[in-house]
Design goal:
Elements (H helix, E strand, L loop, with lengths): L3 E7 L16 E2 L2 E2 H12 L4 E6 L6 H7 L6 E3 L4 H10 L8 E6 L7 H10 L5 E6 L5 E2 L5 E2 L6 E2 L3 E4 H10 L8 H7 L4 E5 L11 H9 L6 E15 L3 E3 L2 E3 L3 E3 L7 H13 L5 H4 L13 H13 L2 E11 L9 H12 L6 E6 L5 H4 L3 E12 L2
Parallel strand pairs: 1-4, 1-6, 4-5, 7-12, 17-18
Antiparallel strand pairs: 2-3, 6-11, 7-10, 7-11, 8-9, 13-16, 13-19, 14-15, 17-19
Helix pairs in contact: 5-6, 8-10
The structure holds cytidine-5'-triphosphate and magnesium ion.
Cytidine-5'-triphosphate binds next to strand 1 and helix 3.
Length: 380
């Protein structure tokens, strides 16, 4: 049996995945993603040496490794994945290792079905990696067709004869590569592609956590309900904007932007659901850029932030609190405008109005208040 080393690269920042923690430490089915990856790797193959490559200031790895009874296996990575792999290779014992398996910490569903064919491939080749065909049609940015039959999607683990991958990295000390098969190719090593697996996907984007959790039999989705509230004073003249609709009533709402209290309350409700501060944080009234700005812009910003977190807006409800103007004649136009701005069907947009029975500032007709709720399905 050839002796083997595992290099697990986990020194990335996980920027595309968003979130408060680097993706390799985010929870999947009750444990950090990297713990699952390591458990699955150790179940699938008996490695003689394990190296986990982490960033210099990683405060999380020790707790993960302690739970798995792994000691003295970390080494410090670099600014790029290539640097991290290089550091992992350099940290291995000089002698006594035949094969090296290099794997992304972000691919938790690795299994023996991937590793065994790689081991077999190294009997005849210097390098091997799992790959998959491409199902979608491929185009360049100008629309020209690309022949997908000439292309492959390549995954990790990628396996190498130890002496050959060391020599390949040594021959290209300053180049950044997308993966380690690219280093092998640059050095002219013989490469065998084995069968990849769809389940061996790399957790990369926010929505991938929900997919991973689902595969673990746990649903990490939740429903977030945000609320928003806004008040603006009336002033004479001009046109009033309310819930994205112009109302020609001889007076307007006073404010720095277009003072659309309905859209402001709604924007804050959406920001509340994703715990992303409030409208004033992102569009400070002190900033001249937002003077007279259409509040559509604020709502669109909030919607983009929802999408960036993998959330889906499901329903909104806006209540306008005022003695005047009469809302009913404008209500359907307001619903339609909000539906349009939020990409929701009309059946999921509610606009209501009420008075305060002549009490308080709204009762005296000094201004208008708006409150809103937004219901968002968050995938993780
Ligand atoms: N990696 C690493 N060192 C780096 C960059 C990446 O060890 N300097 C690791 C990551 O931790 C990950 C694997 O390489 O396990 C694949 O990289 P990728 O999916 O790109 O992860 P990140 O670089 O962390 O994510 P992003 O590119 O979204 O920031
Ligand atoms: Mg990266």
């Amino acid at each position: 049996m050839p002796s083997s080393a595992l290099i697990l690269v986990a020194a990335g920042k996980g920027e595309r995945a968003g979130g408060d923690l680097p993706k390799q430490y985010r929870d999947i089915g009750g444990q950090p993603l990297i713990a699952l990856t390591l458990q699955n790797l150790m179940k699938a193959m008996d490695f003689d040496v394990i190296r986990v490559v982490v960033s210099a200031d990683d405060p999380y790895i020790d707790a993960v490794l302690a739970k798995l009874d792994l000691a003295h296996v970390t080494t410090q990575g670099g600014a790029t994945r290539t640097d991290s792999v290089r550091a992992g290779l350099e940290s291995l014992p000089k002698f006594g290792l035949d094969h090296v398996y290099i794997h992304d910490a972000a691919r938790p569903f690795v299994n023996a079905g991937l590793l065994r064919p790689l081991q077999t491939a190294l009997e005849t080749h210097q390098a091997a990696a799992p790959s998959l065909p491409i199902a979608d049609a491929l185009k360049t940015h100008d629309g020209s067709a690309v022949d997908r039959d000439t292309l492959l999607r390549v995954q990790t683990p990628q396996a190498f004869r130890r002496a050959d991958i060391d020599a390949a990295f040594a021959a290209h000390p300053d180049t950044n590569f997308a993966d380690d098969i690219a280093v092998a190719k640059a050095a002219g090593l013989s490469i065998k592609f084995t069968a990849g697996q769809a389940r061996n996907f790399k957790v990369t984007y926010p929505e991938d956590f929900a997919k991973a959790a689902q595969m673990m039999g746990t649903d990490m989705s939740y429903t977030a309900i945000g609320s928003g509230f806004d008040v603006h004073q009336f002033e004479d003249g001009g046109m009033m904007w309310l819930c994205g609709v112009p109302i020609d009533c001889g007076y307007t709402l006073k404010g720095h932007s277009d003072a659309d209290a309905g859209l402001h309350a709604l924007t804050d409700a959406i920001l509340g659901a994703i715990c992303f501060g409030d409208i004033g944080d992102h569009f400070p009234p002190s900033d001249p850029e937002w003077k007279g700005a259409s509040s559509d812009k604020f709502l669109r910003f909030a919607m983009d932030e929802v999408a960036a977190r993998g959330g889906v807006l499901q329903h909104v409800d806006v209540t306008l609190i005022c003695e005047k103007p009469k809302i009913k004649p404008h209500r359907e136009a307001m619903r339609a405008r909000i539906a349009d701005l939020c990409g929701l069907p009309l059946t999921r947009v509610s606009v209501k109005a009420t008075t305060t029975e002549k009490l308080g500032f709204t009762g005296r007709g000094e201004g208008l208040a708006a409150q809103a709720t937004a219901t968002i399905k968050m995938m993780s």
